[in-house]
Amino acid sequence: MAEMIHPPKPRPGDRIAVLSPSAGLPAIFPGVYEQGLARLREDFELVPVEFPTTRVMGADPRARARDITAAFADPSLTAIIASIGGDDQITVLRHLDDEVIRANPKPFFGFSDNTNLLNHLFGLGVVGYHGGAVMTSLARPGRMHPLTERSLRAALFTSGRFELTPSVEYGDEPHDWADDTLRDTEPRMLPAEGWTWSGAHRTVEGPLWGGCLEILSWLLQAGFVAPPERFDGHVLVLETSEEMPSAEEVFRTLRNMGERGMLERFAAVLVGRAKAWHFDRPHTPEQKAAYRAEQRAAVERAVAAYAPDAVLVFDLDIGHTDPQLILPIGGAALVDAEHRRVSVTY
């Protein structure tokens, strides 16, 4: 396996970059964004430093790439966190200065469309962190979820093993960001049933790779993913977005990874609890359960066909649901099916 660089961690009081590598939504919803920045300052004691495109909607990909490269190059900044995701970060990648990034590795935090940058860093041999965006995890109405805060704090400031724990509650019905009156009201949470284990009954350990499934599909189409042999013994991370892809789309993406000779390389697959509600698809609890069950079956079907020896864990609190655990992409994960435990190394 390739040797991965774990960038040095920031400390309270440090300056960190806040970027918008995808959508410049801080320009559209400044109140939400400012709430996230306030928590960075007050709860984490970090000093956010913005760049020219951080509050610009529709910024040119080359300008965004310049900001990303500059943030890595600046020795006064000790970490980088994305404001939010989007849908076009893939257009930024070819404009990055990889030599600068590789020579100045820093912890990068983001998810959703930021799967692009996490995969890019993985290709450069640098560990990045899936989760922790300013306008979602940090700006959660009312307060940060305690499970999210604990995980993000550990990922930001520590370097040891961290055990992931199932949440007793979950949410996937965010408030309308345009309604400022809801800023101090916590979102609706529902009882969580914990993780679901499937596949092989064994313990595996390996580096993590993956992220938002829709973005992984785009990266594979664009040829931006490493050759299949790069993933031997790795642990695959999958989660889906508010676009709520169908179970058949999920299966076909994984099937195509199988036909690529890629899916069989993974020793385990960690799957996030599927987001099953959106403003234009306000599913009932019964519809949510059915959607998640169909997606789970689709993953099991693909993995059984191409990676029958893999351990599967479903309904982790990662990605687009609340709370959100942070995963080190390129960092080690231990998946123990016998004792039903998952830990990662930050």
TrEMBL record:
<dbReference type="InterPro" id="IPR027461">
    <property type="entry name" value="Carboxypeptidase_A_C_sf"/>
</dbReference>
<protein>
    <submittedName>
        <fullName>LD-carboxypeptidase</fullName>
    </submittedName>
</protein>
<dbReference type="InterPro" id="IPR040921">
    <property type="entry name" value="Peptidase_S66C"/>
</dbReference>
<feature type="domain" description="LD-carboxypeptidase C-terminal">
    <location>
        <begin position="205"/>
        <end position="333"/>
    </location>
</feature>
<dbReference type="InterPro" id="IPR027478">
    <property type="entry name" value="LdcA_N"/>
</dbReference>
<dbReference type="InterPro" id="IPR040449">
    <property type="entry name" value="Peptidase_S66_N"/>
</dbReference>
<dbReference type="InterPro" id="IPR029062">
    <property type="entry name" value="Class_I_gatase-like"/>
</dbReference>
<feature type="domain" description="LD-carboxypeptidase N-terminal">
    <location>
        <begin position="16"/>
        <end position="131"/>
    </location>
</feature>
<dbReference type="Pfam" id="PF02016">
    <property type="entry name" value="Peptidase_S66"/>
</dbReference>
<dbReference type="GO" id="GO:0016787">
    <property type="term" value="F:hydrolase activity"/>
</dbReference>
<dbReference type="Pfam" id="PF17676">
    <property type="entry name" value="Peptidase_S66C"/>
</dbReference>
<comment type="similarity">
    <text>Belongs to the peptidase S66 family.</text>
</comment>
<keyword id="KW-0378">Hydrolase</keyword>
<dbReference type="InterPro" id="IPR003507">
    <property type="entry name" value="S66_fam"/>
</dbReference>
